[in-house]
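Thread: "does anyone have the structure for this chain?"

Original post by V.I.:
We have the sequence but no experimental structure in hand. Need at least a predicted one for the grant figures.
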Amino acid sequence: MNRIFGVIGLGRFGFYVAKTLSELGAEVIAIDLDEQRVKQVADMVTHAYVADALDEKALEEAGIFNADTVIVSVGQNVEASIFVVVILMERGVKEIIAKAINPIHGKVLEKLGVKRVVYPEMETAIKLAHTLLFRGVIEEFPFAPGYSIFEIKAPEDFVGKTLKELDLRKRFGITVIAIKKPDGKVIVNPSGENTVEKDDVLLILGSEENVLKFSK
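Reply from O.Q.:
Generated one for you, tokens below.
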């Protein structure tokens, strides 16, 4: 049985969440007060409604309270975001994910009991800064506060050396968890005897501080 997702607010963040979930085969209920936004997503999702997110009756008629997970992405309106979360909690929605526009907004949502608060613009800005600052970083995947999994191009001075010789864990406190070869082959949890070759891509886990030291 497919999980049912509700997406309240169809700005850029909400639109792409709804679109991606639908493309992956999930059942999605999308809601926004803006008719044009609803039209843009209507052909992509299971159900799309023009409705006021603060109208509890409208949310009920749309089936939002039956969703397994509801993503709240109510633009820049902090007050509306908080009220919507309260309504969802009172109606027993199992899992609520809410977008915050700043840390104070996020703290309020967490105090209300929201298990997962996301900061799309802040996270995108941080990831961009890291790819600019950290040597060879292709992509970053946040893992825990202060820690990420980084996808990096193997530095030239790594080529021809084994992971044991490089000893990255001892030198920098980072761990190579996978090596992707140019032909697409992936070596997961490589041993110390694996050699880094030209055009390899490394997947490393470490703190942002340690990766920055490594990248200098």
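V.I.: this helps a lot. Residues 123-215 form a domain with the Alpha-Beta Plaits fold (CATH 3.30.70.1450).
O.Q.: and The first helix runs from residue 12 to 23.
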